[in-house]
Write a structure and sequence with these properties.
One of its GO terms (cellular component) is cytosol. Belongs to the class-I aminoacyl-tRNA synthetase family. With about 400 residues, the protein is α/β, with parallel strands linked by helices. Helices cover about 45% and strands about 15% of the residues. The protein is built from 19 helices and 13 strands. Strands 1-6-5-2-3-4 form a six-stranded mixed beta sheet, sandwiched between helices. The protein has a five-stranded mixed beta sheet with strand order 7-13-12-9-10, with helices on one face. The N and C termini lie far apart (about 50 Å).
């Protein structure tokens, strides 16, 4: 078993870096950590999409900080709660997912989380699935659990109040989500739950439930959210995330596209840069240093965390070549078409430059697609594929070389 680290300075960093609130209070949790007691903590991740994203990475990074102190960390995949759908901040009910969909979505979560957490060694993080206990609950169990909460508790949540005013439906299963998440704490018998500040209500439900059913106090740590200039969090629903399955080049470029105001908070929450360096970064920003240089370092740090230092250097070289020098990248994805003509929207989808036909049309309407450096304006356009192939570009970083080969391979 790993040694428990009780260094007050290291504990203070874990309890302050990127942290919004601690319940019941930071001082109580600090005393427990300094006592040498090994805590069991977790963060839950509902597989509502096939990839984790930077908002998830911030929470996993916090789990990794506790793991480094020697504590027992659980990476919980919400294959049960994911089928319900968390209503937090949603102005309409989420689409319910099947078990098959959530299992498929979570396929790469272990690999992506491994960039932050150690799942081997003397203090390995554990991966658990909440269907292991929630699937076993009976209707009688559900009645007993829900008896610990009131309708008033649930209905006063902001998104439900907004829906009432707009006469939008609130479904019964949405009330059950925080109950199901709360039961995770009971089933795993945890000492601490970590999550984004937007999850405070759900996590506090778990704190109430474990106190009632197990006569035990559970700490709750809510972490700051990475907020864009419009005030929206970086998340799947907002469409402004960086997915952890992005290529290193795309990941680097997406960080570089962030507004300068995200530099300091992203260094704090999404990297492992030491506090002493964070303070120096803040000083440089206050002194008026060119934010581009710091943003390039931020992009390197984030790509390095997920793909390694070599991939980060290569991604930076690609960025300098493609964006700053406006040259085509050295490595291009090659796409082969079975005919000499192709519909541009179909090419975008097949190549992965667009996730769907609708997205392809939107990109073309925005003027974001170029064929051999000429903007494509018609989503119905049929393009000729010359013998030497043609270059198709999406935005600043998306490139493919399209060739014609009769067998289509």
């Amino acid at each position: 078993m790993a040694k428990i680290i009780t260094d007050p300075e290291k504990i203070a960093e874990v309890l302050t870096r990127g942290v919004e609130n601690i319940f019941p209070d930071k001082e109580s949790l600090s005393r427990v950590l300094q006592s040498g007691r090994r805590l069991k903590l977790y963060c839950g991740f509902d597989p509502s999409a096939p990839s984790l994203h930077i908002g998830n990475a911030i929470q996993i990074n916090k789990l990794a900080q506790f793991q480094a102190l020697g504590h027992e960390v659980i990476f919980l995949i919400g294959d049960f709660t994911g089928m319900i759908g968390d209503p937090t901040d949603k102005q309409a009910a989420r689409k319910k997912l099947t078990r098959e969909q959530v299992v498929a979505n979570s396929h790469n979560y272990h690999k992506q989380a491994s960039a932050y957490l150690d799942f081997t060694g003397e203090n390995p993080a554990k991966i658990l699935y909440n269907s292991a206990w929630s699937d076993l609950l009976t209707f009688r169990d559900l009645i007993e659990l829900t008896a610990n909460f009131t309708v008033q508790q649930m209905i006063q949540r902001d998104m439900f109040q907004a829906r009432l005013k707009e006469e939008k439906p609130i479904y019964m299963h949405e009330f059950l989500y925080p109950v199901a998440q709360g039961y995770d704490s009971v089933a795993m018998d945890v000492d601490l739950e970590v999550g984004g500040n937007d999850q405070m209500f759900n996590m506090l439900c778990g704190r109430d439930l474990i106190r009632i059913l197990k006569k035990k106090e559970k700490f709750v740590m809510t972490n700051k959210l990475l907020i864009d200039p419009s005030g929206k969090k970086m998340g799947k629903s907002e469409g402004n995330i960086i997915k952890l399955d992005e290529t290193p080049e795309n990941m680097y470029g997406q960080v570089m596209a962030w507004p300068d105001g995200l530099i300091a908070p992203a260094f704090e929450m999404a990297t492992k840069v030491p506090l002493s360096e964070l303070r120096e970064i803040n000083k440089q920003l206050a002194a008026g240093v060119n934010p581009r240089d710091l943003k390039m370092r931020l992009a390197r740090e984030f790509v390095s965390l997920n793909y390694g230092a070599d991939a980060a250097r290569s991604a930076e070289e690609n960025f300098i070549k493609v964006i700053q020098k406006k040259e085509a990248p050295d490595r291009l994805k090659e796409i082969f078409w079975p005919e000499e003509k192709a519909k541009i929207a179909a090419v975008l989808v097949k190549s992965g430059l667009a996730a769907s036909g609708a997205e392809a049309k939107r990109l073309i309407a925005q003027g974001a697609v170029k064929l051999d450096d000429q903007v494509v304006n018609d989503s119905q356009a049929i393009i000729d594929i010359p013998p030497a192939g043609c270059l198709i570009k999406k935005g600043k970083l998306g490139f493919i070389r399209l060739h014609c080969r009769p067998d289509g391979r």
